[in-house]
Amino acid sequence: MKSGNLVIGQSGGPTAVINASLVGVVQEARRHGEIGKVFGMRWGIQGFLQEELVDLGSEPDDVLEAVRRTPSSALGSCRLKLKDEHLPLVLDVIRRHDIRFFFYIGGDDSQNTTHRVVEYCRTQGYELYGIGIPKTVDNDLYGTDHTPGYGSAARYVALSAQQGGVLARDMQKVDPVCVYQAVGRDAGWLAAASALAKKYEEDPPHLIYIPERPFSNEKFFADIERCYSRFGFVSIFVGEGIVYSDGTPVSGTQTRDKFGNPEFGAMGGASAAMVVKSLACEHLDCRGEFQVVESLQMAGMDRVSETDRHEAWMAGVTAVRLAVAGNTGLMVSFERAPGPSYECRYVAVPLLKVNEGKQTMPDHFIDDANSFVTPAFLDYLRPLVGELPEMGRLSYRGI
Known about the structure:
Elements: E1 4-10, H1 18-29, E2 35-41, H2 44-49, E3 53-55, H3 61-68, H4 87-96, E4 99-106, H5 108-123, E5 129-134, H6 150-170, E6 177-182, H7 189-193, E7 207-209, H8 217-231, E8 234-239, E9 254-256, E10 262-264, H9 272-284, E11 288-292, H10 295-299, H11 306-324, E12 330-336, E13 344-350, H12 351-354, E14 366-367, E15 372-373, H13 375-385
Parallel strand pairs: 1-2, 1-4, 4-5, 5-12, 6-8, 6-11, 7-8
Antiparallel strand pairs: 2-3, 9-10, 12-13, 14-15
Helix pairs in contact: 1-3, 1-11, 4-5, 8-9
């Protein structure tokens, strides 16, 4: 294989651990003589087209270690949809900087970008080793057991459910309805993570609604009546992308970004949480509140899962090892070892496989009857999130 320089970029929405993958690439690259300089794309592929490159190889070790524990995208991100007419310029920049190793950290659109760059270079007779590094808080990336970023975002949601649940319980005479919205256009992995907060039957959340199941007003009203009668209040978690059976978003208005991805509640429209809260309060004739948190789930450094951070770093390390071994056109993938104890294996899948679909929650993780999740999902999730703090409870003994 040809030796040469390396370039890495970050794309799409951030996570609390995406920089760990970046640092994993830089640190591992220093161990291999086949790799010369290590460049970073400033502002992803958009900056690369404008030749905005930085020298990551000159960064001191202590700076890299600090960046490894810093949220958001240290190189800067973008959402540029790479077009065919961009590809000759991409190859031109690659040639002029003698780049032989190409890494891009991101979701399915970013993996598609890596695939197109690799394939174009191949058709032009240029030897390039391109590896995709996964990232998304949604956990909807195809071809991997879970994605770097999901464990920390899930921990953020679980802690929000736990702490907000205590507030909802104690304020139930004021606001008996509380609705929280989690990120998730196509899949309910994050909204479902709220279930980790429930230790006792009366603990929030009481109900979880996810995009994998059509939302029904009739079932929703029956669900909230049951919970309100039993607990005196209703705590609800929804995924942003929940839709009715005809595909209409519960949030009402919907636009699409340049990749064709839906943007629920955009352009001043309502959110799913706002609509669900209004439906519940009108039906129960009571007050309520709703919470919509988006960016903080993607960059909540105070709630990072240490397992997630380590696995994100290993994704970067594995990408370099795959490339210097002569592999290309692959994405780093996580494989869960069988058995009762949790073990993550670092493997790879073809980049084309990533675009075969979205990884949605399987049926055996969903409790349809109770609008909740099953114990099997909680077993899947716990090792990715870690232990939650214990909350104190009064006995409420009378005098």
